Input
Amino acid sequence: MDLSDAEKIVIIGGGQAAAQACASLRLFGFEGAITLVADEPALPYQRPPLSKAYMKGDMSEERLYFRPAAWYQDNNIETMLSTRAVSVDRAAQTVFLQDDRALPYDALILSTGSRPRALPLPGADLKNVFALRDLADVEQIRPNMVAGKRLVIVGAGYIGLEAAAVARQLGLDVTVLEMEARVLARVTSPVMSTFFEREHRAQGVNIRTNTRLASLTGNGKVTAAVLSDGTEIAADIVLVGIGILPNEDLASAAGIACANGILADRDARTSDPLVFAAGDCARRPLVHYGRQGRLESVHNAIEQGKLAAAAIMGKPRPNEDCPWFWSDQYDLKLQIAGLSESYDESVVRGDPDTRKFAVFYLRGGKLIAVDAINSAPEFLASKKLIIAGTSLAPEQLKDTSLSMKEIAAAAA
Amino acid sequence: MATIIYIDNEGTERSIEAKNGETVMETAIKNSIPGIDADCGGACACATCHVYVDAAFQDKVGKPEDMEQSMLDFAENVQDNSRLSCQITISDELDGLTVTTPESQH
Output
């Protein structure tokens, strides 16, 4: 269904998917009205640096923004910031805002993002207990990131470990609490978990796996984390990084199909042909994996922003890339291609002790994912090999006398 | 301030007044220069901000560091004067820098 005669497009949410949809709609020749409704006070900005360079103070706020305010004016995009959309009347093709204003649309893009999972424990509402999602969170956290302060991080996922790295570099005393037996348990293999655990320990982080938090205590302000065995860990600040939940309430209340994410097809179109979903909030087909899933990543936000814009404008569907991610911790750059969760064999290339190595994940002999530490060739070659569904011999992958170019050429 | 000239693969030139301290990639994105995707926002993680540096500026711009070089090895249509534009920081010295964008970043 081609909507290229649309005159009014409303985008709800002001993250990376929204910014991409704005840019792609104009690039694809949309000349009608675009209205961006965002509940944050800021124009769309990059989130990855919030737990990395920006948190550390190595990057100015100005550099977080995808585009300056003038770009939105020049491109005739109305930005309604600090504005919450409260409902969608699909029959009337109208979005209602918190102040009862009505925004009619010919096409609607939901890029409502996600929210941090709240800590379901006593003391979670104490002062100096923070989530890390928005610029506003970091503004609150940063004044506390001072040498000598004691930081307790709940959850050893990427956000938690990135924040731990920044905090150690700033001289804080850092403890990471993780319920699972290893860090990054939900997202990577034991080899990678062991590597990151060792790195953080070497940097002085107190990593406590198999550890359950019982409560946070303090008088108004948090002073300690209490573990399930009664141990108390003194804390000046607590950072909670235990996952995110998709913001699908607006869609589900409007009768749009949702199931842990707003259901979207390959064109980012929801169960309503006039409504699209892009970014963290969407559950989409993962075409290289033959299943659906929700991806919490830059790649996904960009791609679905483009897919929605292309579908609205009746343009050919842009490429669906191999999912990719990255994480910066200390001087380590982790680059991830693909989704490893269903692997049946893993192959380590290089020596983790050199801090430059990669773990390949195979399923039925075919490459499905790679985690590459300071190893860009392994990452970039794998993106293509994964999409092609290439079968690779473990002994070849292990052979570091062969370059990734040679391995890729031999497999082609 | 420095003037940076972007030439797209069809030969169209765009001249931009760039701020010192920003990168050639950031200036391009903020000014809607086509042909530079910069998916990762400048983290040297994606190799989608590939440009060709004009011969006259190759010495001033310098060579890529190891990480960037190994990213470039896997970009499309790489030449001797290829760089990732997120790794080129603008200064007075680069006034007049001309970069050409490739046909595709993916």
About this structure: The first helix of chain A runs from residue 16 to 27.
